[in-house]
């Protein structure tokens, strides 16, 4: 086994120093400050604060609005992950069959990933705005009462579609790479054995995509938790009547809008624990069903 020898003992530490500094400054330091602030009760102007221990956590977990936001978050994450991964897998399998113009099709499908979350939200808001949106006009013209500003279910559907559309390109890249890594001889052998179309996909192709699917499941879960803030803020602002107020948006509302800093910090700590626990659960139990060839 070949090993790399560095000319001196300091060089390896210098090479990893930038990453360590970034991690400490932008993750560990803010996380420690959030944990510390979650044990305090501060006035909105930050003039005085007092140590209250776990009182903020108790108040948050007993708050019906927080439990409602938790339910909204679960629905949003499940729908966003299913839609974005499902559509991306469909597009990847279709693009994999294209012989002429593969590069062009794949480039066009990747473009949406370059769009910022807030911009993606505004694009869908303009199209489905009940006052001036073209698609909203078509829906109302065909007898569908479309108004996401008043209907919570419609607002949820709108942000799910916007968030999924933003993430489809990312998922598409990995699914295409996973499909290209599958030996063509296996597909040909399955065809010779009589496996056709859908059956061949679910019995041969999809099981071999399990590592890619598992990776994307973890990534899409974290994405739906945190990176969709800009979409929700631009499209619904957590409304109507908190129907689209996810946990991360409630942290923003309570901390920056209502200036309840202690409660907001406690919520951010709980959110961090939830994400870590969920990711650990996925690696501990879901990964067991993943076959690495």
TrEMBL record:
Keyword Mitochondrion: no
Top-level taxon of origin: Bacteria
Membrane-spanning residues: 12-31, 70-92, 104-127, 155-180, 201-226, 265-286
Keyword Coiled coil listed: no
Limits of the ABC transmembrane type-1 domain: 66-282
GO cellular component: plasma membrane
GO terms, biological process: transmembrane transport
Compartments it resides in: Cell inner membrane; Cell membrane
InterPro entries: MetI-like, MetI-like_sf, UgpAE/MalFG_permease
Pfam family, one: BPD_transp_1
Primary location class: membrane
Keyword terms: Cell inner membrane, Cell membrane, Membrane, Transmembrane, Transmembrane helix, Transport
Topology versus the membrane: Multi-pass membrane protein
Record-linked PROSITE patterns: ABC_TM1
Protein family: Belongs to the binding-protein-dependent transport system permease family.
NCBIfam families with a match to the protein in the record: PRK10561.1
Record note on quaternary structure: The complex is composed of two ATP-binding proteins (UgpC), two transmembrane proteins (UgpA and UgpE) and a solute-binding protein (UgpB).
Protein task: Part of the ABC transporter complex UgpBAEC involved in sn-glycerol-3-phosphate (G3P) import. Probably responsible for the translocation of the substrate across the membrane.
Protein name (database record): sn-glycerol-3-phosphate transport system permease protein UgpA
